Hints:
Layout: H1 3-27, H2 32-53, H3 60-85, H4 93-111, H5 116-141, H6 143-146, H7 148-173, H8 188-225, H9 235-251, E1 256-263, H10 266-273, H11 275-292, E2 298-303, E3 306-312, H12 316-332, E4 334-337, E5 340-343, E6 346-353, H13 360-376, E7 382-385, E8 399-401
Parallel strand pairs: 6-7
Antiparallel strand pairs: 1-3, 1-6, 2-3, 4-5, 7-8
Helix pairs in contact: 1-2, 1-8, 2-3, 3-4, 3-5, 4-5, 5-7, 7-8, 10-11, 11-12
Amino acid sequence: MKPIHTILALYTVQMAFFAAIWLAMAWLRLSRRATAHWGLGTLLLAVGMGVVLARPWLPPGLGSALPNLVHLAAAAVIARGVRVFVRRPGVDRWLLAVAGSAGGVVVLANGLGAPHAWTVVAAGLGMGLVLARAALDVGAGLAEEIGPAPAWVCSVPMWIIAGLLSGRAALALVGVSGSGAPLDTGQARQIMLSLALVLMALMLHLAMAAMLMLRLIQRLRHLSQHDALTGLLNRRAFGQRLEAERARQHRHPAPMALLALDLDHFKTVNDRWGHAAGDAVLVAAAGVLTGAARRLDAVARMGGEEFALLLPGTDLDGANQLAERLLEALRDLTVDYEGTPLRITASIGAAVSHDPTEDPEEMIRRADRALYLAKAGGRDRVVCAGALSVIDAPSTPGEAASPRRAA
């Protein structure tokens, strides 16, 4: 066996191995649609190179056109898988146009008996453009999810393979000697290109595996920091966010407010209509809180029917105004559970801190004490900790109930 055939056989086995891995991942439902595309595309790469190895036993026209058509289809399927992975759904007409046009030129060139260089130019440019588009999708589509640097690192193998294929096509187009010859001719240029493709194909699949692992890590991190039912931050993540805001307050002094919110008579909902109804109420209430919060605010479910909002750069008046808007929005909320309209109200305790040295747990305790006073004062109201006067509800010195409570 010639050295070039050994290299191409290694590439074929390598692609078959990776195809089996991707298809197994699809079977395990790990980013199923994307990994299924990658498995099918990689299998087509193995088939295409297998056709190259079988070229001596195939009709001349078929042996030239078929492997290039299969490789074009493989590149398009892998690129489509990338778009699925980065959540860019829909038919990509550009991708279809490039791959279809390149395939049409390959068929036409072989039908006319044109030199093999024509096939190299069409297939090389087609695959190069398709993979360059996939590299752009990776770099831009994953930047927000996993960070710009990791996203662009994952796209590098696609850029390099696109460059190799497009470069070979460009050399064949200008008539550089040997550039338009088939890969299995064994010329030095083809051997070097084949070795580069084997290496970069390995890097490509490692990069795609890294994309998958980084997404899984992000999902695990999200699950560890968010409440499974409502999607809000959990208590642990809220505490971390409070610590971070306290550190920022050290650097840039500004008031910071915390709202502790508890749904009134929530146990009655669970007891009367069941826990599924209670879950529906919690999800609806979480939507109200999220809709009222700013982008820089933090909203958390602290446990049960208790929620908390962290409001950086917000003073007592601002916290009280937001709390009143939340109470009004919750009063107006109707949760339709199996045809039964469920209504809820809430009690809110607010605490504001101007002191960056205050223990975050103490701020939470102050908000909780104010929440207790709001519930003791009749519910469906706001009590602000640290106010200078006592208004409209039984309280202790240092807490004041909002005068704008519901009747």
